[in-house]
Write a structure and sequence with these properties.
225 residues; alpha/beta; six-stranded parallel beta sheet
């Protein structure tokens, strides 16, 4: 018996066969409900504004408005949707660029279908998802940048350190609020402050860096796999 409403999903990808494959994959899980497909960034942006999905699956390499441009436009539209990149690109520049533009995860299209579906479900639940083969690549990029910027946790308050550890454990704002017994709005303010202090543009960047620094909260496993 279902106990909750399925999360709504929008696919933005210019490859019809891939969209069909993903739609069939989503149909295997009753926690997810596909509500729309777009073949371009422009159409995807308009559909996202109208449908307000919970999760958007976005390709990077599209004609016209590319994935990064679409991602930025979606974020500027202030949509509440989580945005997961699905791409063939394992380029460090694309990976870091997508994270900094506001992606909530980055998965490669050549993953096994079962694993891809599992990661999509994780993303829908608010967890961090990055293809396992890319974890080291992103961590190295952030580590090199951190050494240049002399980034460390010293400027953070104790509460901000707690929340950074929760981010590294892959927890959503709602779960962080519950675990720390504070309001979800307060969590958002703390995250905004810690990102500014650490000079990160996104929570995912901060989370991956924190994992690399072994700052997970209470040793909980992360979903960046």
């Amino acid at each position: 018996m279902k106990t909750s409403t399925p999360s709504t999903v929008l696919i933005i990808d210019d490859h019809p066969l891939f969209r069909k494959g993903v739609s069939q994959l989503l149909a295997l899980n009753d926690e997810l409900h596909l509500i729309g497909e777009a073949s371009s960034g422009e159409d995807g942006l308009e559909m996202a504004k109208g449908l307000e999905p919970d999760l958007i699956l976005l390709d990077l390499n599209m004609k016209g408005m590319n994935g990064i441009e679409t991602l930025r436009a979606l974020r500027e539209a202030d949509l509440a949707a989580r945005i997961l990149i699905l791409t063939v690109s394992d380029s460090a520049d694309d990976l870091v660029g997508a994270i900094r533009a506001g992606a909530d995860g980055y998965l490669l299209k050549d993953m096994e279908p079962e694993e891809l579906l599992e990661r999509i479900v994780d993303a829908q639940k608010g967890r961090i998802v990055i293809s396992e083969s890319l974890n080291g690549l992103l961590a190295r990029s952030l580590r090199d940048e951190a050494q240049t910027a002399e980034r460390n946790v010293v400027p953070l308050t104790d509460r901000e350190k707690d929340i950074l550890g929760c981010l590294a454990s892959g927890l959503s704002n709602k779960l962080i609020a519950r675990d720390l017994n504070i309001a979800e709005g307060t969590v958002k303010v703390h995250i905004k402050n810690l990102l500014k202090k650490l000079k990160f543009r996104s929570r995912l960047e901060a989370a991956v860096w924190a994992i690399d620094q072994n700052l997970r909260q209470n040793g909980q496993p992360s979903s960046t796999r």
